[in-house]
Structures
1.
Amino acid sequence: MPDHPYAALIEQLSGDLRPVRRLAAPWRRTVVWCGAVLWVAAIIALFADFGPLWHRLMAAPDMMLAFAGAALTAVLAALAAFMTSVPGRSAWWAALPLPGLAVWLSAGTAGCLRTEAIGWTQPEAPMHPMACIYFIVLVSAPLSGLLMWQILRACPLRPALTASLAGLASAGAAATILAMIHPFDATYTDLLAHLAAVGVVVMAVRFAGRKAVRK
Amino acid sequence: MHARQIESMFFFEKKNQKTFATCGKRLDSGGQSGAAGQAQKFFGSFFQKRTSLPVTETTDGALSALMAASQAGNRRAYQALLRAAAPVAAATARRMGVKPDRVDDVVQDVLLTVHRARATYDPMRPFLPWLRAIAQRRAIDLLRSQFRTAAREVADDNAYLNHPGAEPDADAGLDRADQARLLADAIALLPPGQRQAVELLALREQSLEEAAGLTGRSKVALKVNLHRAIQALRTRLVEGGDA
């Protein structure tokens, strides 16, 4: 192969060639990650009171929608992150979590309007928004770590985009888990706190993910 | 599963390319000698003649089969695949606006990425979009890098040429030799007592006791001679006068 301009490189790359196991399909990897999220949710559920939770969700459909929207955002964002981590897949996959995000935000806003209209159903503690931020950030950390570990086994050609989606998925999952132990009605401060926490997680994972991919 | 695909695909290709079919059958059996060589020969001649790859289902299928064989560890198939991938990467880089002198950088980067990402390829999907996506991103990475460099750095050839090197100047040795010769001449012109004091106390770095013992003169006389000799040398060398 001496006539080829990249003969030396090709020889070197093929020299240590080993059989590789093909990466599982993105949806399969999403299922694995969602399984890990369910494990974390199961641990948190030990401290949850499902009776009042069910009562809250039934009494306020917007809370149920917000809960479902956060969960949908997490699943779709994880799937989008896995999709964009494989070469040749369209960058439009990044738009996949938008419907879930729209449901989450609109339901959260509707909840705020409802509490404004009918008054406080359950006043929140003064430091509650900060507690929400801490919870979402702390629970997101291991979830995003696992997600990035799975993603780095692929080849994310758009590391910032993929890592941002991973951050959104982790924050969405953490917000879904938080709803299980969140005995307060929707408020603007609470909604803003959740959004701020999601933003912090997305930016942190985006930064760390880009660094990790470049190594 | 890929072996069967390769066999069927190459059997299909037999209608048009006998060499191609032979190559596929031997790849199927895992042969490392002639089969891969023929595949390599076929792909090499096929792709090297073209700067942009003709996108046909057959071409993509062949590359997909080679990649599947490469994932299974077939070295020859992998070499043929990389040889075929190089012109595709080069054409993509040129199309993305990479300057001709940097196309090689992109191609090498693409080959390295293909190696690292080969587990992500799904043989059920077309190969060329997978490869071109890698080539496009690597070309964009290079263009961004060039843009950042151009924005931060300014070339100043004159500053580079005028910057003194860390190593001593080549003329420094000659200057030192000239100065030593002038000093030796000046010392030779000193009166014998002063010259002796300079040689013993300054050049040989002997103590006053040792010099006094060698010459039989007192320490005070030696110090006076040395002082006068230094005055005379300073006058001769620095001020250019006569001692």
Note: Chain B is about 75% helix and 0% strand.
2.
Amino acid sequence: MMDLGISGRGALVLGGGGGLGSAIAKSLAREGVKVAVADLVEAAADKTVAAIRESGGEATAVSWDLADHAAMESTMDDLEKSHWSVDILVNITGGPPPSPVTSQTEELWKDQFNAMVLSVIRLTDRLLPGMKERGWGRIITSTSSGILTPIPNLGLSNALRSALVGWSKTLAREVGGYGVTSNLVIPGRIATRRIVFLDEAKAEREGRAVEDVTEESVSSIPVGRYGEPDEYAAAVTFLASASASYITGASIRIDGGLIPSV
Amino acid sequence: MDLGLKARVYIVTGSTSGLGKACAAALLGEGARVVIASRDQARVDAAVANFEERHPGQVRGVVVDLIDPEAPHSLVKSALQGWGQIDGLLVSGGGPPVAGVMTATDEQWKDSFDTVFLGPLRVARAVAAKMSAGGCISMVLSGSVYAPIPELALSNGLRPGLAMALKTLSDELGGTGIRTVGLVPGRIETARTIELDSAHPEVSERRNKAIPTGRLGTPEEFARVAAFMLSPAASYVNGTCVVIDGGARRSL
């Protein structure tokens, strides 16, 4: 067993009720991390918290709309009042509606920028002073393979998530001296409800069977299968650990080899 | 975290010193079995004896030079004779000599191609042919995969090619369940780095200060990442390079 050296640390996992977030929250909890599970859908966060507690872990649920700055501030204030320090922040934001980049309204771009990019930047800014003060922190931002290989018809995601690439790298240099690391994790196609939804949407758009779309997608992945959320979670947990102390400003792909470039 | 390394079999080249040795130690510490290899009999004997003390029955030693076309065969044979399986390979080794594009001789390019490129590739090929499903082929590369390092033209010219060959290998091996992962170290505090730094202390100090973490990495920090990436816990990490450099790389 590798001791990851994070037992007793506190984490905040966004999207903690979803496929990727819940797997990450549970994986961190297995290492003795106290996890604040955040999700827009409170019941989903509660479900992850219940699962963690059932296995003897420590967790609490929080819920706010990522686009709502004031709600984030007050939620973080409440967490701090209950002596919950966030040493590990896992930024996961929901995927935008599938669409091309052309002919989208300015309002949609702004709303998605606010929800997917600015929310992450504000939350990180809110939590960084505590991490710096304690001399230890992990900021892990989950993006998409679209930042390296733009995914057709996921234009908003391709464009907006790329903003976080430059942000995370710049942040790594700014906080490196404080024992805080900042890294991106890049999922390929991990078997969550979102992937099922995207396959279904593509099938409908192209008038094909969903199985056909899925099979085509799977065959484009060198390992020949979708990833499991637990496989994604294991890599994120390792990055969150004391063992990953010299990895910062990096992008770690967990994609089974999908992204066709070095 | 249980990395699932217990009783798995790894070949680690260049493992009697530096990063290779640290990686072998990390794998052994997680219960793996390791074939230790380097060019020097005395160093192999010493490393095996040293590891054997803490991890009895988990270590075998082989003396090989990767420029020898027979080297892969010796490594594979040792692992299979000892434990009947191979679950992973980590190719680690020294870098090419210091030279610029304008100063390196044809002879140096050809020699460096053999040591930096062909040697590692040959071992990867041979091991892949005998490896168990779920195995991982990994190589210690260099920051020169992404950005040229001054005066290391030979590395800058050859390492990117090796990284691309490793990526190609992951595409070819996909159906077999074998992964490939390149490990890209930044400045790690090995005996060689300390020696190089002591020759130009001011230059090194300035360079090390420019690392966002403000310090060199330790071989153990690098090795823990290697152990994770080589293990079944990293089962969906494939065909990619992982940079362990304290944020030193300037580009995205």
Note: The mean pLDDT of chain B is 96.
3.
Amino acid sequence: MHGSSPLPSPPSPGSGASPSSAALSASSASAVNPDAAILAAHERLAELDPFSDRERLFDGVLAALLTAAHAERGVLVDPLRASSSDAGAAGDPPFAIPLTARDETLALLVLEKPPADPVGFASVTAHAARLLDSVRMADKVQKADFELKYRVWELQSLYDVGLSIAGTLDFESLAEDILYKSISLLNARTGTLIVCDRAADTPVTVRHLGEPLLDGESARLLPSTVLRCNTIQDRVGLLANAPAEKLLAVPILAEGRWLGVLVVADKENRDGSIDDFTEADERVASLFANQAAIALENARLHREAVEKEKMEREMELAASIQRTILPDTLPDVPGLVISGANRPAKQVGGDYFDVYPLADGRTAFCVADVSGKGVPAALLVSTVHACLHLLVPNNASDLPGLVARVNRHLVGFSSTRKFATLFIAVFDPAAGTLTYVNAGHNPGLWISPGGVNLLPSGGVPVGMMPGVVHKQASIRVAPGDTILLYSDGITEALNGSDEEFGMERLTALAIAGRVQAPAELSRRIFGAVNDFTTGVAQYDDQTVLIARVSAAS
Amino acid sequence: MSETLKVVVDRPDATVAVLRTDGYINNTGGEEIAKEAYALLGSGVNRLLLDLEKTKIVNSIGISILIEILEKLLDQGGKLAFCRLTPTIEKTFQIMGLAQYARIFPAPEPALAWLRGESE
């Protein structure tokens, strides 16, 4: 088999070039004439297959040597594995001849007496030595070939893991792949891979082959260094009870932070014993641990990208809902000039404003700000919008009752964290009054020749708790008076120094703009907020609704 | 998957045997396969199929034992086939030279046909 198919021979005890001792009796040797015996010995050696079974080969070599020596008995000893029983088998012979090649003794022939033809015999021992040398060299080549292939396998495994990392974001299957490849290449018997989240406090992936070497909780307490435990004394406390003889634990580090550990145990030897883990093993295990760290980081980045994309889609949907709900244009109503504007934030919040002309000539208008962001907030805005559109036409004369019904609806159909501040007012041009309920909203501003008055809150936001009662208030307004409603996105707009735009600036603008058209005042307010924030991203919607009592009333 | 290998031997007919492995082909796992393979060889069955469907991991010692089995089979004019290898194990066998002297098949049927000499 060896002669025709050079399979890579694995490095294993007993399969090396060094032969075991061979002892033979050559009863026919003494009858051969010296020259013929030397010739016959050479022929026997030439017929031997150097790749045949080692025992048979050595038996053949010894037989040839005994023929050449005209000896009946002898021992061919492997110098690396000599044993007294081999020598004893030949009757404690006194004459030893080393078989050497390349300055190395490949075997030792022990005879009872010197050969009859020393010169001829020397040619036979040289022939035998060359034969053993060729076997030894072939074996070395095969071992080197196996080693080389093993290195290729190692590199290929690392390359494959790298490719897998680039090609898949399923960290669970990658983790198993990394664990199995590490165990496989290190000839370990068992292994455990534990990976925690970025806060390093929760194991997110735990994989074992064989009995677990440690659990997730213990893993968190391991040091961020490589632990090579070839003796029980090497073990730190956490690994003391690991069900294995020898351990190698390498940390998985991301940007220097401990995120997990790869532990392999019990490096196998072909003879069944357990080898020590070496520095080279440490390097291989560390390479795989690095790959795990990269894979983990990739998976995290992917997860974040997916979440970001989802959030952006959500924001777009929320913005779309909000765009549909907010009025494009405001109706002309008796006795008021109204202007409203909304600037959605990057993370869509939930501002809402609207104007409702009533059948009896009065006008209702409102500003609301719902809790939360994104789609949930947009849906809540949608609910508030629907409630008000249904209730306002027939309930504007009883604002506390109207707000109570809105509150009841929101409490019944949304979670406790979903609520809305609401400022709703009804202007009666005939009576010259403005009646309002402020449910937890920022105080409205009433700008009149007498100055600026606040229209404060008369109760908690709607949707927060059942059964709350909101106070109604009423003011008498005159032509030229301005009612300015706004959301906290205006007064709490932040600049680069984390300062808020604030009520003072808004009030000053309102006073200065009391002779300006409401649309112009609205533009100035947004312009001032813009100038104040100087491009700093705002996280809350900004809404302004300005109602000016016109001279006609 | 356990690290302890189990081998189940199936004899579809008198000429071939299928050894189904489940577990890690390492030193002990390889010895387990070798024990079954040499018993079959001793009883005159020298065409073996190793079905590795339930084996996901193999190490170099396991491979060296598989090579030893292959050498003995070829010495006695036999044949060795593998089937249902994971991509990783198949690549490993290619790299380590096993695939040069044993055939690898995706499924048992074509492997058995090859072992019986019904296909090239």
Note: Chain B touches chain A at residues 1-4, 24, 26-28, 56-61, 63-65, 67-68, 70-72, 74-75, 88, 91-92, 95-97, 100-101 (CB under 8 Å).
